[in-house]
Amino acid sequence: GWDYPLHLGVTEAGEGEDGRMKSAIGIGTLLSDGLGDTVRVSLTEDPEFEFEPCNTLCSKAESSVATNPVSYDLQKAVTPYVDTRDVTSFGRRQGVLPEQDEGDKIDVRGYLHRDGSVLNAVTKEMLTPENVQYLYQQLGCKMAVGMPFKDLATSDSILMRDPPSSEEVNSRRALKRLIEVSMGVIVPVEKLEEDPLQNAVALIDLEEAVARGGKLPKGAIRMAVTVNGKESEETIAKIRELNPTMILLNISPDLSILHASRRFFEILKKYDILTSVVHHEQTSIAEKDQFALSIGTRIGAQLTDGNGDGVLIEQVGETKPFSVDFLRTTSFSLLQGCRMRNTKTEFVSCPSCGRTLFDLQDTTAEIMKYTGHLPGVTVAVMGCIVNGPGEMADADFGYVGTVPGKVDLYYGKEVIKKGIPNGEAVEALVELIKEYDMWVEIPEEEEALVAV
Q: What DSSP letter does each residue of 67-82 carry, written as one string?
């Protein structure tokens, strides 16, 4: 066979955490499988900022291949399995969603989302009267007379390692309000046995759940099981009988996450188990760009395989630098980058080069500010006519520099407006989106933030 070097790149990835996330999903996942010899990360930033993500992705790849002794041991620690994936076609495993049972006092159907779920870890300190309104906002809730409601990009469920006690009445009331809007509250089974929480989801280690025959603690409405990848095939097969609402897949650090996860999904396929699986990533990374590259590679590799129904990112260690809001929005970016759940506008923007006919970074930032609230819409920002129209072919709308100081606007592959002065072009783009009935007004709260 031919053994030519293979170059990897994600064209027009964008900027910031989003650009790094897309690059990690597209490049890091292939490198994790041992594919790729050279790498180009294409960001709408100054060229020197492209080196670090390139270097990080390559370093991660070098540390994960079997020629690395540590990685070799992690791979060998995974119980052997047969990989039956068809690499010539893509198909996504679709986990089943929670269903209402007769006698349920609350709606459980919102615990997971059909296009991919986002879960967040929450502490009881966040539920105190002085903090709870901030928590509702961090979870992406819409607020009405002080009450939370789910919105387009609200966390579907939350994990509480240590919930407030029944004596902490105000905090329990805050939790109840979330439960009443169909947000799952997942609590370790031992905590629920000490102090029941009505309508909680009991989190139980799979082997323990099997040992107790799936029995729920008092007050729990559903069960979630956690899996670490070390379980035997026989134990994993019992998930079918337990019928949990979801599986939290939290691979043990002494196993290869890629191979242990693939083994787990192979066993689920063998026994026709359709329970939804949420990838549970515990991280101590403290830097945003590194964080995006890490989860884009580690979790993105599974989601782009078609395996997984959501993500839960939990900070561990002494310092927890990221807010619930940042983890939530980054998780939604991960799902959108893996072509699962769209919660915001998709932007395609080229890197700066000598042909660029306007300030690409400032213009892209301005366009994102005014059009970033349109899920399902793709906007391409191209600095010149040379590669722009071809590389933005899948976008709904295009903003393309043609001559110095002038821009053309596209709908699909068709030029709609020509020679618009730069100073008027962003407003003209908004009007064009409105003409094609793809515009929605920014909610008042978000409009205030944009004004600020």
A: TSHHHHHHHHTSPP--
